Amino acid sequence: MTGAMIGWDLRGKHAVVTGGTKGIGAAICDELAGLGATITTIARSDADICADLATERSKIVAALAGKPIDILVNNAATNVRKSIVDYDDETWERILALDLSAAVLLSRDLHPQLRAAHASVIHIGSVAGQLALPTGVAYAAAKAGLAQAARVMALEWARDQIRVNTVAPWYTRTPLAEPVLADPVKLAAIVARTPMGRVAEPREVASLVAFLALPVASYITGQCIAVDGGMSVQGLAFTG
């Protein structure tokens, strides 16, 4: 390996990716594997560990016991797009349980392995956690909480040489976003709001996750980085 490539390689590393069987999660697995990492996926079906993160965390922790974990990607999420007055308690609690609590508590439960590996923990958040968007308040609250949890975890775990960051996508071509992107009116509004004039592909989110997992990102922690085609920084759009 040339000197220029040192730090740009994940050979010998083990990554755990929740929700790693489709959409952004599958793209993350492909990206990390392409850099040499071995992958353990967690999902409710078709995964290396089949479990519901919100209700079967102990099963996941037991399955990972004794294994080194160099990279933990908390990607699994769900959403129900409703007005706050239309949420019942069960729906609210189910979304927060998976989108926020499961990620934070799984990270906590795996802390000994993360500490031993000087790991990189990466939460998949959303720009919906930074801006008011019509995604539903439960999803928005969970994603905002996830980014803030990452900041505090980064402070607490810096002494353990564990880095914790958040990647915050905008609309990306995934099964979760498909009901919105399939609506021509909504898609046109999304594209019009995005300076780059298109929605993201899953690999474009995955590439930032892979970078944060690499040794070359060793001084980056506590950050929330948007992958949004410039949407979150756009003020007045104009030409000329």
- Number-wise, the strands total 7
Count of DSSP helices? 8
Compute the average pLDDT: 94
Largest sheet: 7 strands, parallel
Give the radius of gyration: 18 Å
Order of helices and strands: EHEEHEHHEHEHHHE
Low-confidence stretches: none
How helix-rich are the residues, as a percent range? Answer: 25-40%
Per DSSP, what share of the residues sits in E-state strands of 2 or more residues?
A: 5-15%
> Structural class, please?
alpha/beta
- The backbone outline, from C-alpha atoms, is globular
User: Largest sheet, order of strands side by side?
Assistant: 3-2-1-4-5-6-7
Q: Give the CA-CA distance, first to last residue.
A: 47 Å
Characterization of the model:
The protein has 240 residues and is an alpha/beta fold. It contains eight helices and seven strands. The protein has helices spanning 23-34, 57-64, 89-109, 111-117, 137-157, 178-181, 184-193, 202-213; strands spanning 14-18, 38-43, 49-50, 71-74, 120-124, 163-169, 224-227. It has a seven-stranded parallel β-sheet with strand order 3-2-1-4-5-6-7, sandwiched between helices. Helix 1 (23-34) links the parallel strand 1 (14-18) and strand 2 (38-43). Helix 1 crosses helix 8 and helix 3 packs parallel to helix 5 (137-157). The mean pLDDT is 94.
